[in-house]
Amino acid sequence: MKNNEQQPEFLFDKINYKILLLGIGIIALGFILMAGGGSDDPNVFNEDIFNFRRIRLAPTTVLIGFGITVYAILKNPKKA
Known about the structure:
Blueprint: H1 14-34, H2 52-74
């Protein structure tokens, strides 16, 4: 007997999933870069929350990650 069952077809190709995971990893890296900078004592103000890493670098990294993720979703692997 032959098995005539069709293999399930995925929505995206393998390369799309790789790019999508890369984008999600970059987004996670951006949020990790945003973390920290708080003060243990609520009466003491810590200037570290306004440094370059948290104000410029981390949000830019997150936006680049979102851009890569959108590209992975919109990329048509059959047009190659």
